[in-house]
Amino acid sequence: MPDSEQLRRILERIDGRGYKAYKDVQGSYDFGSFVLHIDHVQGDPFAAPSKVRVRVPQRVAELPPELAGNAVRRVALEDFLARTVSRAIRATVGGRRGTGKSGLIAVDAGGQEVIERTAVVVTPDWVEARLEVGLPAAGRRVLGRQAEAMLCDEMPRIVEQGLLWRNLPQQSAQRFVECIENFEHIRGSLEERGLIAFVADGAVLPRESGASDRPLNAKEAVAFQSPESFRVTMDLPNALPAGERAITGMGIPKGVTLIVGGGYHGKSTLLNALERGVYPHIPSDGREYVVTSRDAVKIRAEDGRRVERVNIDPFISNLPYGRSTAAFSTDDASGSTSQAADIIEALEVGAKVLLVDEDTSATNFMVRDARMQALVHKEHEPITPFIDRVRELYVGHGVSTILVMGGCGDYFDVADHVIMMRDYLPIDASADARALVRDHATQRRAETTTPMPQNTARIPLAESFDPSRGRRDVKIDAKALDLILFGTEAINLRGVEQLVDVSQTRAVGHAIHLAVERFMDGNATLREVVDRVDRFFDENGLDALDPFHRNARHPGNYARPRKYEVAAAINRLRSLRMRQDTS
Ligand code: ADP
Ligand code: MG
């Protein structure tokens, strides 16, 4: 294998030549304490940056094996290392060095959530970071000296500071890994305790601003405190920094739970934290011990979205002019039909908890009050409102709901638990709500006429997906957190609120392609397809999604999506065609 001196010589030789000359550096170089793999060289300074890996043997990195001793710990350690590499890059790299992406070195480190990602890989034998490098150019000419500084001088410093145990903040690493393991342990015990979520005492739920996911500063934030009647204690596998081996907080039981309270008292903030609680968070986030069932899905209205052959009949039937809702399709859903489809689609792929906020719901979907029932007769109202299905969802289908509802007390009739937010703190209002149900009967009548049927399975048709664009057979990009370009189609994910990292979005785009190629055989239902994608990730790792499999062996910028978000993206593809499985 050539060494770093040979890399220097190549860069000196191609200095000043046309940008294509950079192709000569593709290959692997022995740097003594690590190997630099230049896997893919960009075509020009403005193209997607070059792809590089640095692989360090464990005899050099010396990461303690116990920090990667099981799958949860390994994912946490890899995530932590992506952050230390990112910090090392910021401390080392000089900034822009010419045209286009010249001078860039980047690693795909995460935000507040900790998610399985491909940026760093830890094995018993080595640790590897995957980086993007903008090979520097003046105009379109190779800047060989600058490239030499980046690859031969800065890169070893990044490796030293970002990946070698002796230079890492060891206590933070330990705490980080233990925190994630604690989180997963709590999640693992929710089920046996009959809970669907846990919010630790002392948690900081509000964020800095609508545009920042960091915690609100400690002076302004009111720390969470569980009401006594909801308080539970969770044992922890790893002691907290102060030494405790258990943590107390609010356990939200299965069933129908309302979050009520005055406007601006923190209802949505609590629900948002629960939505994000499907992922672990970094220590110091404030939500690191907010833990939600893996199978919790945010439901909302999203008018304008596409819907393909969804049986929304449990919620909407008898549309004007006899239009069927048992296989309902539209290119432009209304608020209520989109919310109905969102629920049915979530149930279809296995959701066990629905998270609903009145702020993002269609009012007519949520409830029809007594006066409206009197004015508009049921035979002229296609909607069976959520209030008339929410108990049945739980009792008949085992699906719990957590619902923010400040505006309609009719929901007291159908709630198991009522949590009232007052001045950002929760109070158990269940007894008061029950008393009101007894003493102030609602005038409204339940509107269900038929029981909710089992879900109608749908089979996605592979031929309705086309990932090609121009001369490329497969062209799939994540343009933003909420936008995938799949071939020539844009998949709008603005209503998919539990997608939290653009690298998840990217993975979703490529996972759809994988699903089409491998799993959509004309018989597999959507549920089976997304379950297989999930199993594929378990068995092969996210790396196997690599769109560059011909010229580079790593993507380095995927984060793992849940099956719910993969399904949500498929469901929003405008070209999607489904067959209902009526067998
Ligand atoms: P609601 O849904 O009840 O109307 P929100 O959850 O939207 O209220 O919260 C209103 C405002 O209060 C937001 O700006 C939010 O950041 C802030 N907030 C929420 N919870 C807390 C808290 N625990 N401490 C301080 N501020 C909070
Ligand atoms: Mg709100």
The distinct ligands, each listed once, are:
adenosine-5'-diphosphate, magnesium ion
Mean pLDDT: 95
Helix content: 25-40%
Rounded to an integer, what's the Rg over CA atoms?
A: 26 Å
Count the strands?
27
Shape: globular
Largest sheet: 6 strands, antiparallel
Alpha-beta content class: alpha+beta
List segments where confidence is low: pLDDT < 50 over at least 5 consecutive residues: none
How much of the polypeptide forms β-strand, as a percent range? 15-25%
Q: How far is it from the N-terminal to the C-terminal residue, by CA? A: 59 Å
Number of separate structural domains: 3
Which assembly state applies to the chains in this document?
single chain
How many helices? The count is: 14
Features:
single chain; alpha+beta; 3 domains; 6-stranded antiparallel β-sheet; 6-stranded mixed β-sheet; 14 helices; binds adenosine-5'-diphosphate
Question: Could you characterize the architecture of this molecule?
Answer:
The chain has 14 helices and 27 strands. It is an alpha+beta fold. It has 3 domains: 4-168, no CATH class; 296-439, no CATH class; 458-580, no CATH class. A hairpin with a 2-residue loop joins strand 7 (137-138) and strand 8. Helix 1 (4-14) runs antiparallel to helix 4 (144-163). The longest helix has 22 residues, at 71-92. 50% of the residues are buried. The model has no long low-confidence stretch (mean pLDDT 95). Magnesium ion is lined by residues 267-268, 359.
Sequence-ordered SSE layout with sheet pairings:
Layout: H1 4-14, E1 27-30, E2 35-40, E3 50-57, H2 58-61, H3 71-92, E4 105-106, E5 120-122, E6 126-133, E7 137-138, E8 141-142, H4 144-163, H5 170-190, E9 195-200, E10 207-209, E11 212-215, E12 231-235, E13 246-253, E14 256-261, H6 267-276, E15 290-292, E16 296-299, E17 307-310, E18 328-330, H7 335-348, E19 353-357, H8 363-366, H9 370-375, H10 390-397, E20 400-404, E21 417-422, E22 425-428, H11 430-439, E23 458-460, E24 476-480, E25 483-486, E26 489-492, H12 502-519, H13 526-540, H14 563-572, E27 578-580
Parallel strand pairs: 14-20, 14-21, 16-19, 19-20
Antiparallel strand pairs: 1-2, 2-3, 3-6, 4-6, 5-6, 7-8, 9-13, 9-15, 10-11, 12-13, 17-18, 21-22, 23-27, 24-25, 25-26
Helix pairs in contact: 1-4, 3-4, 3-5, 12-13, 12-14, 13-14
This protein binds adenosine-5'-diphosphate and magnesium ion.
